Amino acid sequence: MQSWLFLALAIIAEVVGTSALKSSEGFTRLGPTTVVVIGYVVAFYFLALAIKVIPVGIAYAVWAGLGIVLISLIGWLVFQQKLDAPAILGMGLILSGVLVINLFSGTASH
């Protein structure tokens, strides 16, 4: 169970880092650039801890899938970026895949 907490922390840190990436303006602004670097370092640290127990393919699928959805929502809410119907449908399918992995896959329970 602790490994799933590590994975959740990795996802949160990656989302924070990626959210700051736009504000860093190509790494020309020190504050947001610092948030990006720290966010990614923390994300990979906790991902490394998570994959000690969770199979790397499962961990990465969950990390990437939830990261895509969360970043898209932040882009929509914070940066006023549009999400059209195909984008929303695609994110729904990604979330469905994450749920299938976690609810039905015996691989994810290792």
TrEMBL record:
Keyword match Transmembrane: yes
Species this chain originates from: Marinobacter persicus
Keywords from the UniProt entry: Cell membrane, Membrane, Transmembrane, Transmembrane helix, Transport
Pfam families: Multi_Drug_Res
A GO CC term assigned to this protein in UniProt: plasma membrane
Compartments it resides in: Cell membrane
Membrane topology label: Multi-pass membrane protein
Database matches in Gene3D superfamilies: 1.10.3730.20
Stated name of the protein: Small multidrug resistance pump
A molecular-function term among this protein's GO annotations: antiporter activity
Highest taxon above the source species: Bacteria
Spans traversing the lipid bilayer: 30-51, 58-79, 85-104
InterPro entries linked: EmrE-like (IPR037185), Small_drug/metabolite_transptr (IPR000390), Small_multidrug_res (IPR045324)
UniProt keyword Transport present: yes
Recorded family membership: Belongs to the drug/metabolite transporter (DMT) superfamily. Small multidrug resistance (SMR) (TC 2.A.7.1) family.
GO terms for biological process, alphabetical: glycine betaine transport; xenobiotic detoxification by transmembrane export across the plasma membrane
